[in-house]
Write a structure and sequence with these properties.
By secondary structure, the chain is an alpha/beta fold. The chain is 32% helix and 28% strand. The chain contains 13 helices and 18 strands. The protein has helices spanning 13-24, 50-58, 97-106, 152-157, 182-187, 231-237, 257-270, 276-280, 320-337, 341-366, 368-371, 387-393, 398-404; strands at residues 5-9, 28-33, 45-47, 68-77, 83-95, 112-114, 118-124, 127-132, 137-140, 142-145, 164-176, 192-197, 200-207, 220-228, 284-294, 299-300, 303-305, 311-312. A hairpin with a 4-residue loop joins strand 8 and strand 9. The longest helix has 26 residues, at 341-366. The radius of gyration is 21 Å and the shape is globular. The two termini are 42 Å apart.
Length: 406
């Protein structure tokens, strides 16, 4: 199928993975990205996995040491700041933009269209026409939805699938190591830390600096705090100072200051003092409502869904970037090896439907005690989630759990 045309809606890592793989195979690819500005400054920390490195090497983009900071294990802390469990696992903790940037640089700039939101998708006789918000029309043999959990492509081909709110949010922030106290750097910074509190969980870890620095003093610290936010409270969080409500997520500059102040007040009340720097010294704070997207189909006709457009697994799983890369690799490989587009789409769905569903179920299990507002994660034995097990199975592909019997 060399010489075919693809339209990819969504210019984040999933879209770029797919676009670069298809260009390798001789396809003509256009990527539509609704954001006017570059996405390079977006994203915070991610868990790095060996499988992700294999995928990037397949694109001749071998990652270097600047992708992240190595840690030797996970550490569980209780609400007093005492260490209650540890698990030895060497892992690299990276920054999202260290994946995005090399993918973006590899893709032809003339075919990456910022400010182009998909308005409509019409398919006739096997050819799809995507009309963008600026009026441009793009014809293609396949359409790939890589446009996140609010996917316009998914809405067009599988409108019955809606994101489901979990009942809690994740507050996120990143601090420069140089701004953190000596006590924090000595006691907390080097840990891949899991701080278990009543109905909430903070995860924190070191990551490379903005320039890729991984030497002491030039790194950053990433925190992610899962915190309950019932429906009405979520609406308030997503409402800006002018009264505009953002349905699924509010741009960071639009977050009302009182919400950030409340996060810091909650940290002072609920967290041990040793962790306060993570919240109080973050350069900026964002809030991410936690949603599930559980699709029953990810390939319909000549359209396919990848990444968060196909499935959204809660961040506890830590495979968002990896899953997008795996989806893109599977789809591109099927298109390269199959004789027809329908055959390739069927093969892609057969390969990636079940892993996507398993990731969603795994994320629900890991977040169950927060969703239920339990005092401790082990309060309901049905979840089988004592901290010593939670730190073993978080931030890892589901396949790792199966292989190790976790």
């Amino acid at each position: 199928m060399n010489g075919k045309r693809a339209i990819i809606v969504g210019g984040s890592v999933g879209g770029l993975f797919a676009g670069n793989f298809l260009i390798q195979q001789g396809w003509t690819v256009n990527i539509l990205e609704q954001a006017q500005e570059s996405l390079a400054s977006r994203g915070t920390g991610i868990a790095w996995h060996d499988e992700l490195e294999v995928i990037m090497r397949a694109l001749n983009i071998p990652p270097d040491d600047t992708v992240g900071v190595d840690v030797t294990g996970r550490t569980a802390f209780d609400r007093t700041g005492s260490i209650t469990a540890s698990f030895a696992l060497t892992q690299r903790l990276g920054a999202w933009n260290r994946v995005f940037l090399p993918l973006y640089e590899a893709f032809p700039k003339a075919r990456y269209h910022n400010g182009a939101r998909m308005e409509s998708l019409v398919t006739t006789n096997g050819v799809s026409t995507v009309t963008a918000s600026d009026g441009r029309r793009f014809d293609a043999d396949i359409v790939i939805g890589a446009d996140g959990f609010r996917s316009a492509v998914r809405k067009a081909i599988a409108p019955e699938i809606d994101p489901t709110y979990s009942g809690y949010v994740a507050w996120r922030g990143v601090s420069r190591e140089a701004n953190l106290s000596k006590a924090f750097c000595a006691k907390i910074f080097h840990h891949y830390a899991f701080l278990f509190m009543r109905s909430s969980l903070l995860i924190g870890y070191p990551m490379a600096g903005e320039d890729g620095a991984i030497t002491p003093g030039g790194r950053r610290y990433n925190y992610l705090w899962y915190y309950p936010a019932p429906g009405q409270e979520l609406t308030d969080i997503l409402t800006d100072a002018n009264g505009r409500v953002y349905e699924y997520g509010i741009p960071p500059p639009m977050i009302r200051p009182e919400h950030v102040d409340r996060v810091r007040e909650n940290a002072k009340r609920d967290m041990p003092e040793s962790f306060h720097d993570a919240i109080n010294l973050a350069d900026s704070n964002i809030v991410q409502p936690i949603y599930d997207v559980l699709s029953q189909r990810i390939a319909i006709g000549n359209a396919a869904l990848i990444g968060d457009a196909a499935f959204v697994a809660r961040p506890h799983v830590g495979v968002g970037v990896l899953k997008a890369g795996q989806d893109a690799f599977s789809l591109a490989t099927a298109l390269g090896e199959c004789a027809t587009i329908p055959e390739a789409m069927a093969r892609y769905e057969a390969e990636r439907l079940r892993p996507g569903q398993q990731a969603v179920w795994h994320g629900r299990d890991l977040g169950s005690f927060i969703e239920r507002c339990l005092d401790h994660p082990e309060d309901d034995p049905n979840f089988n989630l004592p901290p010593e097990r939670a730190i073993k199975i978080s931030g890892r592909p589901v396949e790792h759990m199966f292989k190790q019997g976790l």
